[in-house]
């Protein structure tokens, strides 16, 4: 979320970025509540997640009327690093976007809990819907 907030605030996005394993907040909260009352329940960190293309989330944000200029990764990173306090700065390396890094394509499927195709599709739709709501309430320069 910090990457999205930082990009919206700056009005710029990297022109290429990979996917990110995501769990919806609703699913994580449900898991935390179950774990609080049942020690045998799976921890939030053990929830199934789905790979979501970060570029798809940026496209959803653009569909809400927010202008995001796509820049080459190196140019984007240089501009972000000049914006003191930008929310994206602390998480750059999480996305392979830190100084000297290039966006990495990571296959998380080997470590991910099994998630059927229909469940994965439903989770992707929930992530995109949550991004749509977030984008509808966010504005450049003051997220």
Describe this structure in words.
The protein has helices at 2-10, 25-37, 54-63, 73-81, 117-136; strands at residues 12-14, 19-22, 50-53, 69-71. The protein has 143 residues and is mostly helical. Strands 1-4 form a two-stranded parallel sheet. Helix 3 (54-63) crosses helix 5. The longest helix has 20 residues, at 117-136. The chain contains 5 helices and 4 strands; from the N terminus they run H-E-E-H-E-H-E-H-H. Residues 105-113 have low confidence and may be disordered.
**Overall pLDDT score:** 75
Largest sheet: 2 strands, parallel
Helix-strand string: HEEHEHEHH
Helix content: 40-55%
Structural class computed from helices and strand pairing: mainly alpha
Work out the oligomeric state of the chains in this entry.
single chain
% residues in beta strands:
5-15%
What count of helical segments does DSSP give?
Answer: 5
Uncertain stretches? 105-113
- In angstroms, what is the radius of gyration? 16 Å
Adjacency order of strands in the biggest sheet: 1-4
Calculate the terminal CA-CA distance, rounded to whole Å: 11 Å
Instruction: Based on Cα principal axes, name the global outline.
Output: globular
